[in-house]
Design a protein that fits this description.
- This protein is α/β, with parallel strands linked by helices and about 260 residues long.
- It folds into two domains: about 160 residues, Thiamin diphosphate (ThDP)-binding fold, Pyr/PP domains (Rossmann fold, 3-Layer(aba) Sandwich); about 80 residues, Rossmann fold.
- The protein contains eleven helices and nine strands.
- A six-stranded parallel beta sheet has the order 2-1-3-4-6-5, with helices on both faces. The protein has a three-stranded parallel beta sheet with strand order 7-8-9.
- α2 links the parallel β1 and β2.
Length: about 260
């Protein structure tokens, strides 16, 4: 198959049905087979919006959020959104097509050093070093985003989409997240039973553990107010009578006072 086909087949194997971004010449070849593979590219006005949309999509769906753009200034527009996803522990995969290998260092079209841009805000950076490794790196970026709960970057020289390779599409590798050991749970229960003024901080752990209903049940059992950790208003319903708002900059005064007490 072509490297583009290996790339798209790996996206499909990871359940990708929607991507966000602006079409560019750097990924024109795989773009032609997105639709036949059941993948919809949702166009935006600005790439930063695409990154935020991928972040929100991942939070709501529990699946990967995927963003793609034109090399250079296209993907550099996503830095702020990827930073937000990093601090929210969201499994976003940003796909960054790059200047062709034969023009790197020569001022190739929209050439930029794309890995350092995202180094601070990604859990893993996969740089495709050979067309034959397209599926391998693509699969690894999707696996690492989910296992480490944070953004990963897949950097692909634009000429590596073309040619013919032999490829095996890797199966997604997902880790089970446990609820904690028996001793840890017993210790936690004892602490809570003796607590005089418990307050629950509901955040990324609740979302990752798909434990919002359990968090509600615990809050009701304890009669404990619940506040959201920074950037995780999605971790407890605002309609619940025990909800007291988010912590952090421009957060809830009630939440801040509860934590202070």
């Amino acid at each position: 198959m072509t490297p583009s086909e290996a790339f798209v087949e790996t996206l499909a194997a990871n359940g990708v049905t929607d991507m966000f971004g602006i079409m560019g010449s750097a990924f024109m070849d795989p773009m032609d087979i997105f639709a036949p593979a059941g993948i919809r590219l949702i166009p935006v006005v600005h790439e930063q919006g695409a990154g935020h949309m991928a972040d929100g999509y991942a939070r709501v769906s529990g699946r990967h959020g995927v963003v793609i753009g034109q090399n250079g200034p296209g993907i550099s527009n996503c830095v702020t959104a990827i930073a937000a996803a990093y601090w929210a522990h969201t499994p976003v995969v940003i796909i960054t097509p790059e200047t062709g290998t034969m023009s790197m260092g020569l001022g190739g079209f929209q050439e930029a050093n794309q890995l350092p841009m995202f180094e601070e805000f990604t859990k893993y950076q996969g740089h495709v070093t050979h067309p034959a490794r397209m599926a391998e790196y693509t699969g690894r970026c999707f696996d690492r985003a989910m296992s480490e709960m944070g953004p990963t970057q897949l950097n692909i020289p634009r000429d590596y989409f073309y040619g013919e390779i032999k490829a095996e599409i890797p199966k997604p590798n997902r880790l089970d997240r446990g609820a904690g050991g028996e001793q840890s749970l017993n210790d936690a229960a004892e602490l809570l039973a003796q607590a005089k003024f418990p307050v629950i901080i509901s955040g990324g752990g609740v979302v990752m553990g798909e434990a919002i209903e359990e968090c509600k049940a615990l809050a009701e059992r304890l009669g404990a107010p619940v506040v959201n950790s920074y950037l995780h208003n999605d971790s407890f319903p605002a309609s619940h009578p025990l909800w007291c708002g988010p912590l952090g900059y421009q957060g809830s005064k009630a939440a801040m006072k509860l934590i202070a007490q």
